[in-house]
């Protein structure tokens, strides 16, 4: 893996799980890491964890609540005041199968946080990405995207809500966004690239049991069948750093069923191949977030 000294990376949800493991590795390689987290107290604790092992790490914590577009705008404005380049944006944070609830802006929580929040964040940081040669956007999807569909007539869940169905929809949206973003980078001749990845089935904080810890027998099952977060983070790190990638690739574990293993090129499910759905999702996302993407190849003023 190449050294990343002098490069700046934003990782959403970097205080735990895959985001934290990716932050550790990228900081070790010399990148300046911005941990974009909803809970800054947990973020500071995670930052200290990294500094305990790597005193040279350049790492800061900034507040970002992806379920609140005002927070997304505020984060982007603050970041742009402090930085004039962005080499790596890792759209990692996610919520999984909560009871039916809505974001501050009235979106279904999973679609709003997992997709729309990251869509808006990427659009608001686009100028920095465009002006940083070789910049990358890495969006985390999931095996759950397989067989999912985007229900444009019920995006807010008011006509019925099934937690796993809506999680799968949000992860398909992440994948469609990543693919469409890369197409547009290439269409406009930009030197940025967009990639997607998935961690297989990884034992992270997404597998929470309310305020209780997981029962012991489930911990044993998780240990046997799920890979630990440091392995689950490898597809993210590969997508973020491998010099042979061209943009548009989907990376996942190489083991049986792509559930565990080391990172390799994977093939998205056919549900991610409909270009008309991809374009419609983009248009709907711009309308819902109020964030439009300017791909013109102009330098920052």
Structure description:
With about 300 residues, this protein is an alpha/beta fold. The protein has helices at about 15-30, 40-55, 70-80, 110-125, 125-130, 165-185, 215-225, 230, 235-240, 275-290; strands at about 10, 30-35, 60-65, 90, 135-140, 195, 250-255, 265. The protein has an 8-stranded mixed sheet, with helices on both faces. Helix 3 (about 70-80) runs parallel beside helix 4, helix 4 (about 110-125) packs parallel to helix 6 (about 165-185) and helix 4 packs across helix 10 (about 275-290). Mean pLDDT is about 90; it is low at about 205-210.
What is the compact description of this entry?
The protein is α/β, with parallel strands linked by helices and 301 residues long. It contains 10 helices and 8 strands.
Attribute tags:
SDR_fam; 8-stranded mixed sheet; NAD(P)-bd_dom_sf; 301 residues; oxidoreductase; SDR family oxidoreductase; Rossmann fold; single chain; alpha/beta
């Amino acid at each position: 893996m190449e050294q990343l000294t002098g490069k700046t990376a934003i990782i959403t949800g970097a205080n735990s799980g895959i985001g934290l493991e990716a932050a550790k590795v990228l900081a070790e390689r010399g990148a300046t890491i911005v941990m974009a987290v909803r809970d800054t107290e947990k973020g500071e604790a995670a930052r200290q964890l990294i500094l305990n092992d790597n005193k040279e790490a350049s790492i800061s914590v900034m507040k970002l609540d992806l379920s609140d577009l005002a927070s997304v705008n505020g984060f982007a404005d603050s970041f742009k005041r402090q930085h004039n380049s962005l080499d790596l944006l890792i759209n990692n944070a996610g919520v999984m199968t909560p009871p039916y609830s809505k974001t501050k802006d009235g979106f279904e929580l999973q679609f709003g946080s997992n997709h729309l929040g990251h869509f808006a964040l990427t659009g608001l940081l686009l100028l920095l990405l465009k002006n940083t040669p070789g910049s990358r956007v890495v969006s985390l999807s999931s095996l759950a995207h397989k067989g999912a569909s985007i229900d444009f007539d019920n995006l807010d869940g008011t006509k019925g809500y099934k937690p796993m169905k809506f999680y799968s929809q949000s992860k398909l949206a992440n994948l469609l966004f990543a693919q469409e973003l890369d197409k547009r980078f290439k269409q406009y001749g930009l030197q940025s690239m967009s990639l997607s990845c998935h961690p297989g089935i990884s034992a992270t904080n997404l597998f929470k049991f309310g305020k209780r810890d997981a029962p012991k027998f489930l911990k044993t099952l998780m240990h046997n069948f799920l890979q630990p977060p440091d392995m689950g983070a490898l597809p993210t790190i590969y997508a973020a750093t491998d010099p042979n990638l061209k943009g548009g690739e989907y990376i996942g574990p190489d083991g049986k069923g792509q559930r565990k293993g080391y990172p390799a090129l994977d093939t998205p499910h056919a549900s991610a191949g409909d270009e008309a759905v991809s374009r419609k999702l983009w248009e709907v996302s711009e309308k819902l977030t109020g964030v439009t993407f300017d791909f013109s190849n102009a330098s920052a003023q």
